[in-house]
Amino acid sequence: QVQLVESGGGLVKAGGSLRVSCAASGYVSSINDMGWYRQAPGKQRELVAIITRAGITNYDDSVKGRFTISRDVAKSTVYLQMNSLKPEDTAVYYCNAEILFPRRLFWGQGTQVTVSS
């Protein structure tokens, strides 16, 4: 099994920056892709960014140019650097990890990010 713990959320003013972190433990040697999702009140959970073990990234259009996902494989940790934050970025941010053989997905409990106008 894989356990994921997010940290770094909080309150920030519009235009500000925040970095959230996700530390994985357990069966970390089998983790393939990792990613960040978010869920705002009344909305579906949506993909923010993903990063492969090799460092290939993909972003949702709403965060391209503002957010950067990175990964330290040795530390089993993934980060999301969030710049130029907007009130619409307010959500609970969840870390996700994928393992293969067979394919399984794991989720953290989330960390709240609130952006004030």
Low-confidence residue ranges: none
The level of helicity is under 10%
Averaging pLDDT over every residue, what do you get?
96
Separate helix tally = 0
Task: Count the beta strands.
Answer: 11
Rounded radius of gyration (Å): 14 Å
Q: Overall 3D geometry?
A: globular
Layout of secondary structure:
Elements: E1 2-7, E2 10-13, E3 18-26, E4 31-39, E5 46-51, E6 57-59, E7 67-72, E8 77-82, E9 91-99, E10 104-107, E11 111-116
Parallel strand pairs: 2-11
Antiparallel strand pairs: 1-3, 3-8, 4-5, 4-9, 5-6, 7-8, 9-10, 9-11
Folded structure, characterized:
The protein is mainly β and 117 residues long. 0% of the residues lie in helices and 58% in strands. The protein has no helices and eleven strands. The strands form two sheets. Strands 2, 4, 5, 6, 9, 10 and 11 form a seven-stranded mixed sheet that branches. Strand 9 and strand 10 (104-107) form a beta hairpin. The radius of gyration is 14 Å and the shape is globular. The mean pLDDT is 96.
Summarize this structure as a short list of keywords or feature phrases.
7-stranded mixed sheet, single chain, 4-stranded antiparallel sheet, 58% strand, 117 residues, mainly beta
Describe the structure concisely.
With 117 residues, this protein is mostly beta strands.
